[in-house]
Specification:
alpha/beta, Rossmann fold, 2 domains, six-stranded parallel β-sheet, 12 strands, globular
């Protein structure tokens, strides 16, 4: 039986054990998947202990994603761009790292019939979540990406990384008027989840746009409530992304591809 785990702090709320256990049940394989509290100051010691005690792969969540990237030896192209990792595994004593968040988002957009190619996309927020999805979002070849953030300099730092990309990518403050009519809006901020005021441009929402909130709750997220009040009828949360990024990690570790829709159906019952 192979052992896997998600590490982070706090971690008791994580849905990853349930998701990966569902994948294993659907595929008929025997695994164990744990949620393990690991604090930033104990990361290296705990990581070495987990792999030496028989864990084959680890998912990494806050606040450890950047630490995981810098501690790894072999990194995917996406990891090198985002400077963070959410998936770790060892081969012949070498620590490999990948980031499946962006790919998981794009797969979920496709599953919902949402198009990024040729679109004008607004990304709210310039933190770790925004950085994690941008490489995959750019691969879909949108027409333009506008990153809005409360601290403008953080959005500008991200723009600088992709300044030579064929897709136009610009930065602005959260309350700046958009220079285009948005086709898609991706919220990476946690303001709505934390019950804080959601700051946004007055012309953010258009009647042809879709919205995607990376946050997820048992009910409609506050951001999607706002989107629906502004006549956005295609408003989704990050639950599908959570399942799909997990499936990509599962495939990296096992070479098996889970049926994500079946797993979602199994767990949402």
């Amino acid at each position: 039986m192979k052992k896997f785990a998600v590490i982070g702090s706090p971690i008791s709320h994580s849905l990853s054990p349930s998701i990966h256990t569902a994948f294993a049940k659907i595929l008929g394989v025997d695994i164990r998947y744990d949620a393990i509290e690991v604090k930033l100051e104990n990361f290296e010691e705990q990581l070495n202990h987990l792999f030496s005690s028989g864990y084959s792969g680890l998912n990494v969540t806050l606040p450890l994603k950047e630490k995981a990237f810098y501690f790894s030896t072999k990194r995917s192209k996406i990891c090198s761009l985002t400077k963070s990792a959410n998936t770790l595994w060892q081969e012949d004593g070498v620590l490999f790292a990948d980031s499946t968040d962006g790919k998981g988002l794009m797969e979920d957009l496709i599953s919902k019939g949402l198009t990024a190619k040729g679109s004008n996309i607004v990304v709210l927020g310039a933190g770790g979540s925004a950085k994690a999805i941008l490489p995959s979002l750019l691969e879909a070849k949108p027409n333009e990406i506008f990153i809005l953030n409360r601290t403008l300099s953080k959005a500008e730092e991200i723009v600088e990384i992709y300044i030579n990309n064929t897709t136009k990518i610009t930065a602005g403050p959260l309350n700046e008027k958009l220079p285009f009519k948005s086709d898609g809006i991706i919220n990476t901020t946690s303001a709505g989840l934390l019950g804080q005021e959601i700051v946004y441009p007055e012309n953010l929402f258009s009647d042809q746009a879709w919205s995607y909130d990376l946050n997820y709750t048992d009910v409609t997220t506050n951001f999607n409530k706002l989107a629906k009040r502004n006549k956005i009828y295609k408003a989704y949360d990050g639950m599908g992304m959570l399942f799909r990024q997990a499936a990509l990690s599962f495939e990296i570790w096992t070479d098996l591809t889970p049926d994500v829709d079946k797993a979602i159906e199994m767990l949402t019952k």
